[in-house]
Amino acid sequence: MSFTVATTGILAGSTRNRMSERQSRLNKSASIMDFDKLLKPEAVKVLTSASSKKRLMQELSDLAEHAYDLSAGSVLDALLEREALGPTGVGHGVALPHARLDGLDEVVGAFVLLDKPIDFNSVDRQPVDIAFALFAPEDAGVEHLKALALVSRTLRDTSICSKLRANPNPATLHTILTSAQSEQAA
Questions:
Q1: Is residue 98 predicted with pLDDT exceeding 70?
Q2: Is the pLDDT reported for residue 68 higher than 80?
Q3: Which of 129, 119, 124, 121 is CA-nearest to residue 164?
Q4: Strand ranges, E, within the chain
Q5: How far apart (Å, rounded) are the C-alpha atoms in residues 171 and 106?
Q6: Are β-strands 94-95 and 44-47 bridged in parallel, bridged antiparallel, or unpaired?
Q7: Which residues are the active-site residues?
Q8: What is residue 50's predicted lDDT score, i.e. its pLDDT?
């Protein structure tokens, strides 16, 4: 009887330790993906001249080149190739174009606020005025999905989108996005 109790106690402690280690790894993994790491301040822009979906994609590509030293041509090709699989306009004026690229070590993003919404073939057929592009390494699996989930969850929040639309200043937009994650967690 005492051997059984002692063994059960050891096993229970071992199970708790494994669960604690697993939770610690999950928490560490979850904390890796945040807007501060995903989006540089110089990767945020307000556009006054995008007149089409392709032009917006070009602007996002140029922004990625400027902020992350990526080839704008390669970025544009990858975005258009992904978009050909199906539109990334998720509704409510938001688009989440994304692509996998050679030469990246981590998932990064670019954010654009348009002063005039454009047609993007969105699921709800509404024009887009908020675009958050994600660029992931070719071999990024779960990190790419975590980034998409983070951005999607954030931009589904109507109060955050309202703040973004009301503040056409890139530094303010960056602050809204990077602080949105902590507000959602609270």
A1: yes
A2: yes
A3: 129
A4: 44-47, 89-91, 94-95, 98-101, 108-118, 128-137
A5: 23
A6: unpaired
A7: 98
A8: 83
